[in-house]
Amino acid sequence: MSAVTQRLKAARPQLALLAVALLVNVFVAPGFLDLRLQDGRLFGGLIDILNRGAPVMLLAVGMAPVIATRGIDLSVGVIMAISGAVAAAGVNAGLAWPVAILAALATGLVCGLWNGLLVAVFRLQPIVATLILMVAGRGIAQLITEGRILTFTEPHLIAVAGSTLAALPLPVVLALAAAGLTGLLVRATALGLFVEAVGTNPRSSRLAGVHTGLVLGAVYVWSGLMAALAGLIATADIKGADANNAGLWLELDAILAVVIGGTSLYGGRFSIGRSVLGALVLQAMRTAILRAGLPPELNLVLMALVVAAVLTQQSPAFRPVATRLMARLKNKEAQA
Amino acid sequence: MAVTPPPVVLAARGLTRQYPGVRALDGVDLTLRAGEIHALLGENGAGKSTLINLLTGAQPRDGGTITMDGVEIDPDGPGGAVKAGIAAVYQEITLLPNLTVAQNLYLGREPTRWGLVHRSRMNQEGAALLRRFGLTIDASRPLSDFSTAVQQLIAIARAVDLSAKVLILDEPTASLDTAEVQTLFTLLRSLRDQGLAIVFVTHFLDQVYALTDRITVLRNGRLVGERRTADLPRLDLVAMMLGKTPTAESHLSRRPAAGIPAGAPLVRAEGLGRRRLVGAFDAELHAGAVLGAAGLLGSGRTETAMLLFGVETADQGQLVVDGKAVTLRSPRDAIRLGFGFCPEDRKLDGIVAGLSIRENIVLALQAKRGWWRRLSTAQQHELADRYIKLLDIRTPDAEKPIQLLSGGNQQKALLARWLATEPRLLILDEPTRGIDVGAHAEIVRLLENLRDRGMALYVISSEIEEVAAYSDRVLVMRDRAPAGLLEGDSITPAAIVNAIAADHHTRGAA
Amino acid sequence: MGRFVTTRTLPLLATVVVFVLIYAVCAAQYPAMLGLRVMGNLLTDNAFLGILAVGMTVVVVAGGIDLSVGAVMGLTTVALARLIEGAGLPPALAFALVLALGGLFGAGVGAAIHYLKAPAFIVTLTAMFLARGCALLISTDSIPIHNAAYDTLAATALALPGGGRLTLVAGIMLLTFLAGGILLHGTRFGARVFALGGNAHFAQLMGINTGRTTILVHAFCSLMAALAGIVFSLYTRSGYALTGTGVELDAIAAVVIGGTLLTGGVGGVAGSFIGVLIQGLILTWITFDGTLSSWWTKIAIGALLFLFIAVQRLILVASARYGRSGAGPAAPNTPNQATSAPASRPSSGAAAPSAS
Fold first, then answer.
1. Are the Cβ atoms of B355 and A190 closer than 8 angstroms?
2. Is A221 within a domain?
């Protein structure tokens, strides 16, 4: 119980941001909070945000540990496109749907492994290492789809995005399950500690016996897997693999979600839960703008402003100012 | 010899610099005279780097004054110091290897023609400048084409050309060979004769006697004293640096183990070494006994620990553990054998700042267990609390970020990290460095306790009294090679100082 | 290794070799590609990319990266279209305005990087969102530009022998490369850029104002992006907010393939020019082939990028292991650290007690 309250306490800024974004939604679209059950599936504004936000939630879940190791994965959007293309091409070539889905996930793993090798073994800067796949990846996806939007009619694959589980859209269930599994994986094992230790001080960690290379490699593999799952959902959603647009710029959304989630770009502490909240904040913002009838393009500008604010707050140059302000506030409180 | 002392160029009085929890420099004076080479000596943590940083304005000072030619100055940032006539050249050459020699010499003040850099003139002037420093090289070539020694001379030429009243050289000879050192010395002597005041920081005592006119010794952030080089015998110098008068009585009573336990040692290093790191050394580590290692900074003392813990892999000799020869390729190999290692630089290699005390304590044990077998939160708390109590780590609770602890308590937390793994051999590099004096004795008692409980200890320290107090054997290192092994009653502070300072003119180059 | 084959020139040399190889393969297969006509088109089609690459080269040499150039270029084309079509401004004035705005935008980006001490890629990423968002807010549709002066500028070209044409935009690109080369290799500012990229801390110790240099470098890069926008709008005679989506990656690829180290401090615009030509050549070859699809370009560029990054990495590792000290990419142990610990960090070279 206390662990839960502690976690909620730590997530206060993210929860507050989310509440503000949701309030704006309520303001522009009364009835936003209404939930109704129809044909065994919940409908409503909140479900919509969860459903639309599922891919970025998944990407953020994979990206958070990467950023915690002082890394970055620029290739997740591209991995989405490749894995979607693999799944679509797979069912169209007559593969059984489970095989196609497994192939898509395996593709994500291989892509992650490639990134992990470049970072952990060849010691390339993460941004450079993942840039390579980012540049080449869309070409690879197009190679698989042969440049077309590869549509398919395989019902099971479509069901990845279109079906319902426990009254929730399957993408929501998948994203929450992946977040839960990742959370379990990092907190119920020692991986979370190792990731944070390596991200904070790789030298000390190595001297304390942590296998730094393995930890670094693992986070990229996991990020690749999460991206592949997100790619499956995106592909199933439009019933086709669009090599050009699937996951386009979503790596940025994922990075922003993690940053809003309070993970420092300089590595160290990270939280899966707060990163998911960050992804939901972005989606709620997007939905609010859409519902308000404002141009959706405004969203980009707003996102930039949010990130600028978070960066300023995280900046080492800003910290002394913030501490002084906090101290002054506390003094006032004490006097009152 | 000098009848009228030359004029004072720079006088620093009462320089003080405070870091959180430690006073890095405490009211230190430094006097530099025109035309002298002045050695600045001291062990790690003595405050040499801090003193240099205050003089060059790289760090602000918390107290004290600096006067140049009688005028008080306030070096604000490196530019200000250069303007005042103080320039520093560091062991790690702070020039830009990707630029040409001439670009390095004239960065920010390149000769121009029609708004563009006049390359040919810059190269000619650069070459001419370097010729005055005894270097005949093509200044249009990239700096990285040249050896460290030449780069060092270029850095000196740049510094002297920029300002040149006071030149500070921080460990300039650390990576030079004998001939290169001679070239450098010739240049420094000629600069001295031109009236420059030169500060020379080194850990090679031979070089101090070969080159310098005067010596200032620092220890634990305080001034120990200033002497004329010619008046200070080597033995007294080492004693000043190590804070030990050879004849004085030790305040720590000698309490070694009952004697080296019989039987085969736990760990035996036979001619272990690595090219360019440390020469072949022997060591025997017994359960329930302490092997001390003494030597000055740069003597290779830390490097022995790096080989014993697999931080670097030995390329000669062998390591025998439990009677079997082993090869350590990483710290993980050593940890698997039951070794632990508290490194010298706690901030860089020891603590994981940002993580809590609890997480720092469990890190090594958790790494040893593997990622799958996580210590439960309850187990972690139990472990952390037990060691906080056992080692008397002063903190309100185990969840505080470790960087908030004082140096001594950080050291105890690192000790706890390794004790949690129940090691058979614990290697400690400068366990009492940068720790306030009160905590010294506490750490020493702790080590003695561990030894009495049957742990093998390898303790590297520049605290000669402490080494003498708890060691059953002492390995003395000098010039990256072993220089002797003291045993039993022959272990006294004076004997260790003697072994470190022993004149070794007869020895060849390493 | 001779005087001219050094760690510095090897990547550039490799670039030239790759270019010659690809060109030879192209020419052997399709002799028509040898002609000036194809070369003229190659320059025109890639003019905007070349201009972006000049700006990107300067940023990368300074040790940074700029992901916002594509978005700034897109914003410029829309702004131009609006200013000329909507506000009726004469093109010359519109050009001046967007160039000034571009420079200011970059200065802001550079200031954010320096003062917030934030990683360049995340700041420029944010800038990319900002620029793209602003562009889309101006218009989500493609705005055609109907302007007599514009048409004249767009049609201006120098006839080349063999039926080729050197268009105005191609000429602007070539001039940009020339100017960029002079700036980077001939001025005090250029020396500061190299110093900053070599080691920002050392550069500061040597008296370089790193903040000012960072701001100027990004201002220049955004200025080039705005110029690329102008060129692109001349080329298409329209403005569209999504122009240049993803071209920042092409520009970075051109710079890296051109032998500029992503770690900063080494490189130049000449290599980037060849990097741009290689990309154009591959695209042209694929067009000539007809059976291959355009996605092969991306794969080929990605493979080349990997190849060059791998080569750079190998050179760095080799020079750190066998070469002279001081050239390694390792983070320096800054001398103003409170507790520098030389003993825990073995210096290269055997210790040498002096003889006396």
1. no
2. yes
Residue B260: what pLDDT?
A: 66
pLDDT of residue A325: 65
| A307 burial via Cβ count (<10 Å: 0-12, 13-18, 19+) | buried
For B144, the closest chain C residue by CA position comes to: C327
B8-98+142-232 and B246-338+423-510 in the same fold: yes
* Cβ–Cβ < 8 Å for B140, B100: yes
Confidence of residue A59 (pLDDT cuts 50, 70, 90): very high
Fold designation for B246-338+423-510? Rossmann fold (3.40.50)
Give the residue from chain B lying closest to A201, CA to CA.
B352
> Domain-by-domain residue ranges, chain C?
9-151+177-321
CB of C184 closer than 8 Å to CB of C193: yes
> CB-based contacts of B120: which residues, under 8 Å, 6+ apart?
none
What mean pLDDT is predicted for residues B119-146? 86
Query: Is residue B116 within 8 angstroms of chain C, CB to CB?
Result: yes
DSSP state of A120: I
Judged by a CB distance cut-off of 8 A, whether residue B349 touches chain A is: yes
Best CATH choice for the domain C9-151+177-321 from the list 1.10.3210, 1.10.10, 1.10.3470, 2.20.140: 1.10.3470
Asked if the C-beta of B299 comes within 8 angstroms of chain A's C-beta atoms, the answer is: no
Interface of C with A in 66-95 (CB under 8 A): none
Per-residue pLDDT, averaged over A205-234, amounts to 94
A14: which 2 tokens? 């993210």
From CA A74, how far away is CA B215, in angstroms rounded? Answer: 56
Give domain limits for chain B: 8-98+142-232, 246-338+423-510, 353-421
Which of B76-80, B196-200, C121-125 has the largest mean confidence?
B196-200
Percent of chain B at pLDDT exceeding 90 = 16
Counted domains in chain A? 1
Would you call A132 an interface residue with chain C, using a CB distance cutoff of 8 Å? yes
Q: Would you put residue B461 in left (φ > 0), alpha (ψ -120 to 50) or beta? A: beta
Say how many CB pairs under 8 Å bridge B and C: 194
Residue with token string 């022997």: B282
CA B64/CA B66 separation, integer angstroms = 7
- The answer to whether B41 touches B21, Cβ cutoff 8 Å, is no
What are the two backbone dihedrals, phi and then psi, of residue A122, each rounded to the nearest 5 degrees? Answer: -90, -5
pLDDT reported for residue B299: 82
Q: Which domain holds residue A64?
A: 42-296
Least CB-CB distance to A317: which of C116, C119, C133? C116
Q: For position C104, what pLDDT does the model report? A: 95
pLDDT at position B370 is 86
- Report the gap between the CA of A336 and the closest CA in chain C (Å): 34
What is the pLDDT averaged over residues B197-221? 87
Taking the Cβ of residue B186 and every Cβ of chain C, the question of whether any pair is shorter than 8 Å is answered with no
If one counts every other C-beta atom within 10 angstroms of the C-beta of residue C148, the result is 8
Residue B510 pLDDT more than 70? no
Residue A319 located in a structural domain:
no
Given 3.10.150.10, 3.30.240.20, 3.40.50.300, 3.40.50.920, which CATH number is that of B8-98+142-232? 3.40.50.300
- The helix or strand, by DSSP H or E, that contains position B9, with its residue range, turns out to be strand B8-19
Return the pLDDT at C352: 34
C-beta atoms of A201 and B353 within 8 A? yes
Q: Which chains touch B (3 or more CB pairs under 8 A)?
A: A, C
Q: Is C31 on the interface with B (CB under 8 A)?
A: no
Which residues of chain C, if any, have pLDDT below 70? 1-9, 162, 319-356
> Which single residue is written with the structure tokens 């490699």?
A217
Q: What is the mean pLDDT of residues B252-257?
A: 59
Residue A24 within any structural domain of the chain: no
Q: What pLDDT, on a 0 to 100 scale, did the predictor assign at position A242? A: 86
The DSSP 8-state label assigned to residue A33 in this structure reads T
Determine whether the interchain pair C341/B44 forms a contact, defined as Cβ–Cβ distance below 8 Å.
yes
